[in-house]
Each structure stands twice: as structure tokens, then as C-alpha cells.
Amino acid sequence: MSRSASIIQDALDHGIKAKSLYTVTPGSEQIRATIARDGQLQTFEEFGGMVLANACGPCIGQWDRRDVKKGEANTIVSSYNRNFTGRNDANPATHAFVTSPDLTTAFAIAGDLRFNPLTDKLKDKDGNEFLLKPPTGIALPDRGYDPGQDTYQAPPADRSAVEVQVAPTSDRLQKLSPFDAWDGKDATDVPILIKCQGKTTTDHISMAGPWLKYRGHLDNISNNMLIGAINAENEKANSIKNIFTGEFDAVPATARDYKARGVKWAVIGDWNYGEGSSREHAALEPRHLGGLAIITKSFARIHETNLKKQGMLPLTFENPEDYDKIKTDDKLDMELSNLKVGEPLKVTFKSTDGKSWSTNLLHTFNEGQLEWFRNGSALNTMAKKAKEAAASA
């Protein structure tokens, strides 16, 4: 913040302001209060900048953008840590580039993506050329951080009579129901919902932006499940074949149809499946819509653990080349009764032509995590242990 403010002050001293939309997102109330106290906030606003609310903001798609229409090609430059398609403004035509706050600020001053602040000169209010000074700043504020407004509302000390009331008609809030425990049987004839091609981040699995209003309603937000993933069968997003109807439909709609038929399904993924944000909905949604297993070449570590917590099976190919052998209309049998710590899981893939082949899948379950799977989820396991402890007290 202080380095960006120093660049802006240099521009203001030369009588110029931002030539493009310039927004600042304080990461917390503490940061907002500190930059307000130390003068940077006033500098940003004098420059023509807009200081946004203390929130994730455009970084996660919470941006009510009005300067361009959806579908209109444009470029944004930000210092946020994500630039997936449509991430910031839900506009797939937006080209998003990530760089430092210093360069982001310099581009806003110049209004030109070709601008190099090390060599290119600007013109001041009188038309005289000048180079921006190198930015200066402090790593930590001299007077420490200002905690800002205390907005925490503590719950009552005695919560025994507290009841959380959620309207059944709400489309934004929904009480969670426990997931079913494993039935103790091997899985047979499990269809492949989608074979994902290439990068499948948590944004592809559960998009943010306008979907965030449904974060408290699992069923509604599940309508974005895997809608950004690319189907290896047709190289399209959100278009997969329903094995029962033969028709192509959206991924969530197809998953719901399988669930209504009592059919559990699996997803086939590529390298580093689930990279990006540690978004728990990316694991909750497949579980809610009837998923059993996610089988990939490799996982992003946090997403792999999140899947385990929801009672799903994150599995990896012992031989990554097996990915290429799988057809989207294959079905698979899984010897779940032999799922043990440190041992591979045998899976048989069966093609529509009657041929089949078997392979080993690897996993990283420890014994406690296997209990999550057997009980249906980590929360189910916690509830079970709490009930057992209360019964023995």
C-alpha cells in the first residue's frame, strides 16, 4: 500500500491522476483503518481511485462491474493472485493480467499497457516530460496496525436454547444434512460423469463470482459444479453425455439425473486437479450430487484433503498413462472392501464393447481418514464420536 501510494503521490505532484479505473481492496478492517490513519487512503482517493469494501472483492468475483458489458473484450491488470477466465468480473472476454501493485499503479497512471515505468516518460499538467520515481515504502507501519472497528458479535454464554432458524423457502441459506455413510459394499458399474481435459482448478469445479450468494445453500451452488471443466470427449465446457438418455446436457443436470436414479458416479481428472483456491464447495458439491470418486493423474494437496473430509475417494493412477485409455462411456468396478492404508485399490474399467481391463489406483488415506469415508464424512465421524462419548459418560 505504501509503495503504491508513493507512486501516486509522485503523479499527483506533477498534476496528473489515474487515466483508467483504479480500485483498492483492503484485505481487512485492520488494513483499511491503518491506511486511513496513515494517509494512504486519502492519497488513493485524491488520485481518483475507488477504495472498495474490506472483502475478497474482485479477487473472487465480488465486483459489481459497470464500466464494460459482459462479453465485451477488455483488459484488466491486477495484483490479485488469480486470473482465471471470468474470475474477477464474470466476463469471459476479459483479459486479466497479474503483476505487482507497483506496476498495476503505473499502468493506471499511464493508461497504456505498453508503458514501461523504467524507461518511458509521462507528461505533467503543463506538458513537461518526467519519469516516475522508484517507489518507496515501509514493510510495517511505524505506529503499528490500527485494529479499526470492532464488529465482532459474540454468541451468548449459554447457547443451549439457541435455535438457528432458516426459512425453507430461502435460496441463499440451507441447513446441511449429513451425508450417507458407506454401505460396506464394493462399487460396481460406476459411470464416468466427465473426463476432464487439462487444467481443472477449483474455479473450474466451483466458480465464484455471482455464485457466491449461494455459498450458504449447498443445493443451489451445486448448479455450478464442474461447469468450467473441459470435457475430453468433445473439448467443450459444461456439455457431457447422459449415459441413460444419450443426450448431452450440463454437468450438474446430468449428475442430478444420476443421483435421482440412485447411481453413484466418478470423475476422471488430469494433473494437479483442484489447484487454486482451497474452496471447500469444490468438494462438497460432487459429494452432494452423488459423486463417489475423483480419479486423477495428481491432486492439489488441499483439495485432496477436502474431498476426504466429505467422504469422497480422491485416487490417483499408479500409471498416469491409464488416463489416455479411459473412454467417457466406460464403467468401473471398485473393490472398496479392500481399501486399506498404504495399499493400492484395484479398479476394473469396462467398455461398452464388453472388453475390460484392471489397474491399481493409489491413495493417501490414513486410518483416521478412512473412518471419514466409512462414516460418510469427517463431520459424521465427529458427531459419532461425540455421541459415543456422551453415552459412556
Automatic annotation (TrEMBL):
Coiled-coil stretches noted in the UniProt entry, renumbered to this chain: none
Keyword line: Iron, Iron-sulfur, Metal-binding
One family name in Pfam for this protein: Aconitase
Transmembrane segments: none
One GO cellular component, as annotated: mitochondrion
SUPFAM superfamilies recorded: Aconitase iron-sulfur domain (SSF53732), LeuD/IlvD-like (SSF52016)
PROSITE patterns: ACONITASE_2 (PS01244)
GO biological process: tricarboxylic acid cycle
Residue ranges of every copy of the Aconitase/3-isopropylmalate dehydratase large subunit alpha/beta/alpha domain listed in the record: 1-111
One Gene Ontology MF term: aconitate hydratase activity
Domain Aconitase A/isopropylmalate dehydratase small subunit swivel intervals: 191-319
Region of interest: Disordered: 136-161
InterPro entries: Acnase/IPM_dHydase_lsu_aba_1/3, Acoase/IPM_deHydtase_lsu_aba, Aconitase/3IPM_dehydase_swvl, Aconitase/IPM_isomerase, Aconitase_4Fe-4S_BS, Aconitase_4Fe-4S_dom, AconitaseA/IPMdHydase_ssu_swvl
Name of the featured protein: Aconitate hydratase, mitochondrial
Originating organism: Orbilia oligospora (Nematode-trapping fungus)
